[in-house]
From TrEMBL:
Lineage: Bacteria, Pseudomonadati, Pseudomonadota, Betaproteobacteria, Neisseriales
GO biological process: aerobic respiration
TM region(s), chain numbering: 7-26, 230-254, 284-307, 334-356, 368-390, 414-434, 446-467, 479-505, 517-535, 547-566, 587-610, 630-652, 672-694, 714-738
Protein name from the UniProt record: Nitric oxide reductase subunit B cytochrome c-like domain-containing protein
Listed Gene3D superfamilies: Cytochrome c oxidase-like, subunit I domain
């Protein structure tokens, strides 16, 4: 450790404390997760719904694409309704009408003010306080509620089938006809939707709040933010201000300014002879941009489906490529190509760490990993298609080989296992180069933090395997966000920082001490908020107040290190002028500059827009979430992956030069397109939805009546301009990478 001892102890302390919090509260998630009651019975003793019915419904929902067709508990896609909020509201309205008709012989809307007040008070009491599960696992429902559930269920059974009365609605929700052909499966699906609505309306035992902390906003039963919601929202702002203040103070008073090293006359990395494993990376570069193009074309199709539903400029595509499948592939492709870009960077650096040579069979391992990635991509896509379009997979077969139903982890469990093995193979290939380097003399602190980061990237996809087909949603979300948040936003970030520090040091742009210090400090800063900040995704999925408190407090700290990224952006941009030979690295450096900008805006500003509990209570499941997702996922990790691929290309094909004209246009078109998507469509629609959610409830903000209004459709049409702009820029970038990959390099 030497002179970095304090920084290492700080990092160890951060990891120990934050993972203890994540583990301890994870145990709380398991213990307090909303239960699956053994059965729901009517007041007259009739069994209405059993646990087995709900679990079969969960499987049926997964086979339709799950979160890729509408959302449940606020997580998923944004075109169709949130089925939890929608089912709950429809059931409440039906209960009001049935009760009004029974007691007063009128519809609820025709009652007097006093009569309405009496009926609404009974509604709130019955739903919030009288539908608790007893010690035998039974929930007793009134006959009126049983009738309401029966009547509402008919709507979903017809909607997911082929009833022509709902053709227009299906079109507006971008649902293909016969989304779920089997009638029995549709009945179970509605029972699963009912269960999610029950968790959102029944008070948790010994609490005045529901299992979902009163989410979604539903005025009819007084689902509104809890006191704890307000308290921890205010506290998160205080923690943010405190963190920013301490960071700025520490940056200026504790930072030791190292003298800039003398820049070499020749690129040091250009002197290193390419190894067989490095030469093989041209395939990875090509696969990265091919999947990138596939992803953005699917994204354009998904965006257009929000306008025409089942058509693409009049062409009926939904039978072959429905919205749920297109969105599945869109998100999975993003995960695949970004991860491939990161793996490419690691595999290029590995032989450099090993003294410029490959361990035995390293090239074979690199090629085998490529084949494995190809198999996972093709196999998972085929499984998704078989499940959603052909409807040939159901139950456990669907979960294992078709569609798990959960955003970003949509691929069947079999393919997920293969992908996990692939990441572990990558980790093995990296470690067999890195471990021998520790035996050499000299300071190994920078190598140690880099190795720690590759262990995080290689191993932390595996927690996505820790839930099953019928795991309750609160527990599933806990593990899902280990992957989507902790793996991507945590360990990818640390890996990127350490990898860039390693490369810049080897290029002679920064001193060893500066690179090591920056990597250790960045690791602590990113993880102190990033690890327990995972809980900010779980406020309303069926967790308790301590989870909300921890998530709100630490996720505010996630924004803190992003405040000073303007300085990092300038550094990356200025490196291209550090020496004449650095001009070859201009475009990787421009990508890294864009990463710093979008980290601050997409991850920082737009992330904090939805992080505090009070804001997310109203914004969860709206287009404001997509604002953060697009700005952070592509703006940060997408540009990082592209930058890595471009940098590797500069060395594996040293005689190839990226065309400056095309790269300039491509770079700025992508940034302009991303800004346009957010500012011209996603954010305005999200703001209008937020107003509707605060005023009427989430059900209305996601309803057919609201989302299909002409002015909102206009915003979606306007987005087309930005989508085309972005796609054009991406194609220009991809063409250059493909040319690099296929070029015949004389030096090789």
């Amino acid at each position: 450790m030497g002179q970095y001892k304090k920084l290492w102890y700080t990092l160890f302390g951060v990891l120990a404390v934050t993972f203890c919090l994540l583990g301890y509260l994870g145990k709380e998630v398991y213990r307090q997760a909303p239960p699956f009651p053994e059965k729901y019975v009517s007041a007259s003793g009739q069994t209405l719904i059993t646990k087995d019915d709900i679990l079969k419904g969960q499987s049926a929902w997964q086979s339709t694409g799950g979160m890729e067709l509408g959302s449940v508990l606020g997580h998923g896609s944004y075109q169709a309704p949130d089925w939890t909020a929608d089912f709950l509201h429809r059931e409440l309205v039906m209960w009001l009408d049935l009760t009004a008709q029974k007691d007063y012989g009128k519809k609820f809307d025709d009652l007097s003010f006093d009569q309405k007040a009496i009926v609404q008070a009974r509604l709130k009491q019955e739903y919030r306080e009288q539908s608790a599960m007893d010690s035998s696992g039974t929930v007793k429902l009134s006959d009126t509620r049983a009738k309401a559930i029966e009547e509402v269920s008919k709507y979903y059974i017809d909607l997911y089938g082929d009833n022509p009365a709902y053709n227009k609605t299906r079109d507006n929700f971008a649902m293909k006809t016969n989304t779920l052909p089997d009638l029995e499966s549709r009945k179970h699906l509605t029972q699963f939707f009912f269960w999610t609505a029950w968790t959102a309306s029944a008070n948790r035992p010994n609490s005045v709040a529901t299992y979902t902390n009163n989410w979604p906003h539903e005025p009819l039963i007084d689902n509104k933010p809890t006191t704890e919601n307000y308290v921890w929202s205010f506290a998160s702002v205080v923690f943010l201000l405190m963190g920013v203040g301490l960071l700025v103070w520490g940056y200026h008073f504790l930072r030791k300014h190292e003298p800039a090293p003398k820049i070499p006359d020749v690129d040091p990395l250009s002197k290193v002879s390419l190894t067989p494993s490095q030469k093989a990376l041209w395939k990875y570069a090509a696969l990265t941009v091919i999947l990138f193009i596939v992803q953005i074309l699917l994204g354009g199709l998904v965006a257009h489906y929000t306008i025409e539903g089942q058509h693409f400029y009049g062409i009926p595509l939904s039978d072959l490529l429905p919205y749920s499948l297109a969105r599945t592939w869109h998100l999975q492709s993003a995960l695949f190509w970004i991860a491939t870009g990161f793996l490419t960077a690691g595999l290029f650096i590995a032989p450099i760490i090993n003294g410029g040579k490959d361990p035995k069979y390293q090239a074979l391992g690199v090629n085998a990993l490529y084949v494995a990635l190809f198999i996972v991509v093709a196999g998972s896509y085929a499984g998704n298609f078989t499940s959603i379009v052909l409807n040939k997979l159901s139950g456990s077969a669907n979960f294992w080989f078709g569609h798990q139903g959960y955003e970003y982890l949509d691929l069947g469990r079999f393919w997920q296992l293969l992908l996990t093995v692939g990441f572990l193979l990558w980790l093995f290939l990296m470690l067999r180069c890195a471990v021998p380097a520790f035996k050499q003399g000299g300071d190994k602190n920078l190598l140690a933090i880099f190795v720690a980061s590759i262990v995080g990237v290689g191993a932390f996809y595996a927690p996505g395997l820790f839930y099953g087909e019928h795991t309750t949603l609160a527990v599933m979300e806990y593990w899902r966000w280990w992957v989507v948040h902790l793996w991507v936003e945590g360990f990818f970030e640390v890996f990127a920082t350490a990898a860039l520090a390693f490369v810049f040091y080897n290029l002679g742009l920064v001193s060893y001490k500066s690179a090591t210090t920056a990597s250790l400090i960045a690791g602590s800063l990113f993880l102190v908020g990033g690890v327990p900040g995972t809980f900010h995704h779980l406020y309303f999925t069926g967790t308790t107040t301590p989870v909300m408190a921890t998530g709100a407090s630490f996720s505010a700290l996630e924004v803190v290190p992003l405040i000073l990224l303007g300085h990092e952006a300038y550094e990356h941009w200025s490196y291209q002028h550090a020496a004449p030979w650095m001009k070859r690295l201009r475009w990787p450096l421009m990508c890294f500059t864009a990463v710093a900008f979008w980290n601050m805006i997409g991850a920082g500003v737009f992330g904090f827009l939805i992080n505090p509990p009070i804001q997310l209570f109203y914004l969860q499941g709206l287009n404001t979430t997509a604002v953060h997702a697009h700005g952070a996922l592509f703006g940060v990790y997408g540009f990082l992956a592209l930058g890595f691929v471009l940098m590797v290309g500069c060395y594996i094909k040293p005689n190839f030069t990226y065309d400056s004209k095309y790269m300039t246009r491509g770079f700025w078109l992508m940034n302009a397109g991303l800004c346009g998507m957010i500012l011209s469509s996603l954010l305005p629609i999200g703001i209008f939805q937020a107003i509707a959610s605060v005023t009427h409830g989430l059900w209305y903000a996601r309803s057919e009546a609201f989302i299909q209004q002409d002015y909102l459709e206009l915003f979606r049409w306007i987005r087309t301009i930005s989508d085309v702009t972005f796609i054009a820029g991406a194609v220009l970038f991809a063409i250059q990478v493909i040319k690099m990959s296929l070029s015949k390099d004389k030096a090789a």
